[in-house]
Structures are given as structure tokens and as C-alpha cells.
Design a protein that fits this description.
CATH topology of the largest domain: Rossmann fold
InterPro entries: AAA+_ATPase, ABC_transp_ATP-bind, ABC_transporter-like_ATP-bd, ABC_transporter-like_CS, Oligopep_ABC_C, P-loop_NTPase
Bound molecules: adenosine-5'-triphosphate
Structural class: alpha/beta
Number of strands: 11
Strand content: 15-25%
Family: Belongs to the ABC transporter superfamily.
Shape: globular
Order of helices and strands: EEEHEHEHHHEHEHEEHHHHEE
CATH superfamily of the largest domain: P-loop containing nucleotide triphosphate hydrolases
Keywords: ATP-binding, Nucleotide-binding, Transport
Largest sheet: 6 strands, mixed
Number of helices: 11
Helix content: 25-40%
Protein name: Oligopeptide transport ATP-binding protein OppF
Pfam families: ABC_tran, oligo_HPY
Length: 323
């Protein structure tokens, strides 16, 4: 790999809008991010911030209103049908609910066989590959003969991961795959993913509303607020010195010892309607960073600045940090 190897996944000025006429509204606004080969980018944000829409846009299920997505430096909008089919295989989306990716009528073996070779999906033909992928996610070989409903939630998510990997993707997008699971099962799935990343050098976009979860599996993290990336950077930098008050709020809300009083107050405030975000900095009505909310916040949208490209007029750290 050279320095000019393009990222496996990228978004450039990506804007996605839904609705028609006067009801049309942007859900993602000028998103810039990239995931280089073998890296894992975590994407965090609260419900409605646009995480799933971004995942869907990256795999070509949602069309940009402006900007573009790139796969290995190429825009799917200019691909032929066969290339698009190959793209769908090479970027696997694992959704929160494995039932959305697993056909309940198919045995697990048949589902994996289909990913191995869609044209010759006979599970007997691919028995060794099926066993290999099941073992890769720490499931028994005989899981192949059972249907998805015969598994627990965590096991089902392992099956979904095995199925996604069996397609030999260049990248995996995991969308809230642990959020419906108990803490201990969540930890198991995160360990499986961390192990797979180390063994297979997977390129990954890992989406969650939970910063603690994202930290374990990401080299870098991007924070989404009302359809905008408000901060992104190396995981350790972002966690140890967040520059955006929203990132700080998310970190302070992590349940170890309970949130700080300001975080509690801001977290309790309703998130604004994504269809009609506040002018200026969209976060300003909830911003409780002491002494930092100024008139400018209500009128001017901040540009990304500092080591973590924080979109804040008064970042908490960095050259322009206020007192
Ligand atoms: N097909 C659609 N048509 C219209 N609006 C949509 C559509 N898909 C998503 N939205 C809206 O886009 C916004 C972002 O939704 P999205 O599902 O991407 O958020 P999210 O961060 O993934 O939330 P959650 O964590 O709750 O899934 C929401 O206001 C949602 O109602």
C-alpha cells in the first residue's frame, strides 16, 4: 500500500435529502469522511442524527442530493450494472436486526452458501467454507443446519457477521449491531469483531449511539449531530481531549459514576427536529459548555477546525480554545 492508495470508503460533501417540494429536507449535510484500507472508523450520534442514512448512502441504497460517495476512489454513480453488483458484494452492510439480513426460511448454511457463491448456493457444495466462517465467529459447525430463529440474539448477530464475511468484502459497515443485545453479549460480539479485524485486516465502519462501544473497535471516530459531522479524529485524541461540546456531552453521559450536571441538563433537552435544525451552530440551543455560548453561535455555522476538525466557534481544546 502506498500513501496515495485511495480510501476503501469515502464521502465527499455528501448531502442526502428526503421528501418533496416544501417538505424536502436534508438529513445529511456536506459529510466528508474516509476509511483507509484496514482501518476502522467509528460513527456515533444520537437517534435521528443520520447514521443509518449515511450507511445506506455508502452502499448505494440512497442517492446523494449533492456530493458523492467513493469506493476505492470510484463513484458508484458512474458504474455499470455489473460493477454495481460487485460493489454490493464488496461492501457488506450488517444491520441492527439480523432478521433484516437473514431470511428466516433459510438455514444458516444456505444463507452463508449464498454469500459464498450466489450462483451456486448449494450448502453441500460449500460445506467447508460454511464451517470455516462459522468457526471464525466462534459458532459450532452444526449451526449450519438450523434456522435463524433457533439462535439467541447474540448468536444471530454472529451468523450475520459470518454471512457478511463469507462474501469476502473489502469493507463491512456494522450499523448498531450490538444495541439490541445484553451487555455481556455485546462484549462477546465486540471481541469477535476486534479479533476479526486483527486477523483479516478488515476495513470497517462501525456505527453506534454508544461511545463506549465504538471506542473498543475504532482507530478513528466521527461524531454526527443533526446530519453533520461535528468532530472527527484519532480515537484516543477524541476521547481524551474532545474539542466539541457535543462530544463532551456524549462522553459525560457515559454511565460510569453518572453524567456531570451540565451533561444531564443538556441530555435532558430535546434534540431539535432534524427536519428543521437551528440556524448557526445546530448544537447551540443545547450547548452548556460554561461561558461558551455566544451570539455568533446562533447565526454562523462554524467551520471545522483544530486536530479533530471540530465544528465549534469556541472549541474546548486547540489553538482557538477559549478560557
Ligand atoms: N426514507 C426516508 N424518508 C424520509 N425520512 C427519512 C427516511 N429515512 C430516514 N429518514 C429521516 O432521516 C433522519 C435520520 O434518520 P436515520 O435513521 O438515518 O438516523 P439514525 O441516526 O440512524 O437514527 P436511529 O439510531 O434512531 O436509527 C430521521 O429524521 C428520519 O426520520
Amino acid at each position: 500500500m502506498t500513501d496515495d492508495t485511495p480510501p476503501v470508503l469515502a464521502a465527499e460533501g455528501l448531502t442526502v435529502a428526503f421528501g418533496r417540494g416544501s417538505g424536502r429536507h436534508a438529513v445529511l449535510r456536506s459529510i466528508d469522511l474516509d476509511v483507509p484500507p484496514g482501518q476502522a472508523l467509528g460513527l456515533v450520534g444520537e437517534s435521528g442524527s443520520g447514521k443509518s442514512t449515511l450507511a445506506r448512502a455508502l452502499v448505494g441504497l440512497v442517492r446523494p442530493a449533492a456530493g458523492r460517495v467513493l469506493h476505492d476512489g470510484r463513484d458508484p454513480a458512474h458504474m455499470r450494472r455489473a460493477e454495481l453488483a460487485e460493489l454490493r458484494r464488496s461492501v457488506q452492510l450488517i444491520p441492527q436486526d439480523p432478521y433484516a439480513s437473514l431470511d428466516p426460511r433459510m438455514t444458516v448454511g444456505a444463507a452463508i452458501a449464498e454469500a459464498v457463491d450466489p450462483r451456486r448456493a448449494d450448502p453441500r457444495r460449500h460445506a467447508d467454507r460454511i464451517a470455516y466462517w462459522l468457526e471464525t465467529v466462534a459458532l459450532e459447525r452444526d449451526a449450519a443446519d438450523r434456522h435463524p430463529h433457533a439462535f439467541s440474539g447474540g448468536q444471530r448477530q454472529r451468523v450475520a457477521i459470518a454471512r457478511a464475511l463469507a462474501a469476502r468484502p473489502r469493507a463491512v459497515i456494522a450499523d448498531e449491531i450490538t444495541s439490541a443485545l445484553d451487555c455481556s453479549v455485546q462484549a462477546e460480539i465486540l471481541n469477535v469483531l476486534a479479533d476479526l479485524r486483527a486477523r483479516l485486516g478488515l476495513t470497517m465502519l462501525f456505527i453506534s449511539h454508544d461511545l463506549t462501544v465504538v471506542r473498543h473497535v475504532s482507530d478513528r471516530v466521527a461524531v454526527l449531530y443533526l446530519g453533520r459531522v461535528v468532530e472527527q479524529g484519532e480515537t484516543e485524541t477524541l476521547y481524551s481531549a474532545p474539542a466539541h461540546p457535543y462530544t463532551r456531552l456524549l462522553l459525560d453521559s457515559v454511565p460510569d459514576g453518572g453524567p456531570l450536571p451540565e451533561a444531564r441538563e443538556a441530555a435532558a433537552a430535546e434534540a431539535p427536529d432534524p427536519r428543521d435544525p437551528p440556524r448557526g451552530c445546530a448544537f447551540h440551543p443545547r450547548c452548556t459548555a460554561p461561558g461558551r455560548r455566544e451570539d455568533v453561535c446562533a447565526v454562523a455555522a462554524p467551520e471545522p477546525d483544530g486536530p479533530t476538525a471540530a465544528r465549534c466557534h469556541f472549541p474546548l481544546v486547540g489553538a482557538h480554545a477559549g478560557s
